[in-house]
Amino acid sequence: MSKMRKWICEIEELQRKTYDGTNHITVKSVEFYERWIVLIMAIYIIVYLGKYAIGIGICIDWAVYMVTKQTESWCTSLIRCIIMLLSLFLGYSLCVIGFVLNRKHMNIFVLVVVIIYLTKKFLADWYKISIISQSTVAKMANELISVFVTIMFTAGTYVESLVFNDVPSLSMIKKSYHSIEQLKIVLASSTVLQKKIFLAYGKLSMEVIFLMLLPTLCISLFITGIIDLKEYWMKKYGQEDFWTRVEMKRKQRSLAKSKDIKTAE
Fold it and tell me: Which end of the chain is more exposed for a tag (fewer CB within 10 A), N or C?
């Protein structure tokens, strides 16, 4: 029980820091320069290397991070919380797709390590955003996202079985030719082969998206359970959610101001 109480106190401390701005990035902090270096690297990746998916994914992750550090409105707004979580997923998806599509330029071990790191970071950021947000907001956001992801996964699997069932993979197409040069020569004049490669890329993209939907579904369901656990222990200890107390104080202040205005009139 003492561990659960400590866990709840740690969450409340994170919520308080988000509310009072003590976790904001200042110009004097090392973190401030680190985040801007990341943004400059992302712009370099887009402009000079032409890796748009990876660069845009990093930019989205940078934007989400800066918003969580500089504001607290996403903690109590359902729409904003959903936007934050979906933005996390979009940034993660673009980075993974970018690395997978450029895998021929990377060692397979390095690629696996990079994807594991991105997935771990994605899950950790999702957990932190959800756990800091108001319990009812975070729970509803994760439930809606899990429903949406389940529908997407089911519909996507059905579409793949109909459209891409007989489509060969890119590796199978390459194996049908003696060399890449021969493949390029045939590709320049064959519309049938062009269609096959286009469909093969579509199939690969859908498979990658499905692989990314699974951790999203898992973390959203996991977070829903964690929030249920958090609410149970808070109720048992007789505690209210931090953001609920903040909203009550705001309402009391607004009522006091309205009374003062009426008295002055």
Answer: C
Residue 257 covered by a domain: no
> What own/partner pairs with CB < 8 Å and gap ≥ 24 does 243-249 have?
243/15, 243/19, 243/75, 243/76, 243/133, 243/134, 243/135, 243/137, 244/134, 246/19, 246/76, 247/76
Query: Which of helix, strand or coil describes residue 29?
Result: coil
Q: Which domain holds residue 10?
A: 2-246
pLDDT tens digit sequence for 14-55? 888 887 766 666 656 667 777 888 889 888 888 888 888 888
Cα end-to-end distance, the chain, whole Å: 54
Against a cut of 0.90, is the pTM above it?
A: no
CB neighbours (10 Å) of residue 234? 19
Residue 77 lies in a domain: yes
The verdict on residue 256 lying in a domain is no
From CA 5, how far away is CA 229, in angstroms rounded? 12
Q: Tell me, yes or no, whether 254 lies in a domain.
A: no
For the chain, the domain total comes to 1
Nearest to 73 by CA among 129, 140, 11: 129
